[in-house]
Write a structure and sequence with these properties.
Helix content: 40-55%
Strand order of the largest sheet: 1-2-3-4
Distance between the termini: 27 Å
Largest sheet: 4 strands, mixed
Shape: globular
Oligomer: single chain
Order of helices and strands: HEEEHEHH
Number of strands: 4
Radius of gyration: 13 Å
Strand content: 25-35%
Length: 97
């Protein structure tokens, strides 16, 4: 796990949002960063390489495939997680409502 993923995991494990999350979980052909299976929410934390066009296309396909399986996918950058964790947690909480 990256530093940002570890930091988000610490916050999710602390039950800050009162939901159960799994990390590095297999869904279909993918390993997602985090998932709340009960609510069908996948959380991905993207590093700098996700700004590359080829990776963006792969991410779009991945998101589409996960959505077809019934999941909602939200993405945050490493910087958002590391420097604005409160806003990240707020957005996750909004998605869980």
């Amino acid at each position: 796990m990256t530093l940002a993923e570890s930091f988000l995991w610490q916050n999710l494990r602390a039950n800050a949002l009162d939901h159960k999350f799994l990390r590095q979980h297999v869904i279909g052909d993918y390993i997602v960063d985090f998932v709340c299976r009960d609510d069908g929410l996948v959380i991905e934390v993207d590093g700098a390489y996700h700004a590359e066009r080829e990776q963006q296309i792969d991410d779009e396909i991945r998101t589409h495939d996960l959505e077809k399986m019934g999941f909602r996918v939200i993405r945050f950058t490493n910087e958002e997680v590391l420097y604005d964790i409160e806003a990240v947690l707020e957005e996750i909480e909004n998605q869980l409502k």
